[in-house]
Amino acid sequence: MKTKIVNIQLALFFQENISRPDKVSTSINHEMNNLFDAMPFILPMPNDAPAEIPIVQMKSELNKEYNCNIARSRVDFYFNPEKEISDFEDFEKEYDAHATKFISAVFKSIKPIKISRLGFVVQYFVEDNNPTETIKRKLISKELGSLRDLSIRFNQNNSVGNIKINDITNIQTGKVTKNNKESNGILVQRDFNNIVKKNMGLTISSLKTLLKKAYSYSTKKFIEEVVLN
Q: Which of 113, 155, 175, 189 lies at a CB distance of 3.0 to 4.6 Å from 123, suitable for a disulfide?
């Protein structure tokens, strides 16, 4: 089963909205040693605009795989691999060096506002010439006949210590194009996020613990044995 990572997203949600995402972006980039070295794009938005709209978009010219969006209610750290990565476990050390630095940078940059929620999303592409039949055979017992496409979503409630989490899996047929070559297959998205408790902020330590747990649910072995077994 040939797999590869399509993208990774780390999201941090604020306990209350920040007023100046532009100032926060400067601080985050400084703390991350100017990883986002391209000119940032800043979208002027009125204060009553939806808080989840990205106001600042930061990218890297030197390392084009990483970028960051900052809204008043959240910040998102994206990784879009240019190289082929078949298993997150092989990439974990390199990714974690950036992700943990990012968490610390955001934590420091938004004080005294706290972080209430962490979300970690990784999407795999599993090459398959007949993805609908593979999903039906592995995950569905009822005979559905011939299908054009197929998607399945389920959420397993788990916990990390005293923090309850959503452990969401999305499975669907899809296509990936690279070097002008289109491949058929299965898109498997793992979405790991904590359930927010009222007035409870997460510490850096708890954020890193949640992230480590998310990593363990995002390996190729987990996808093959637990999701597509």
A: 189
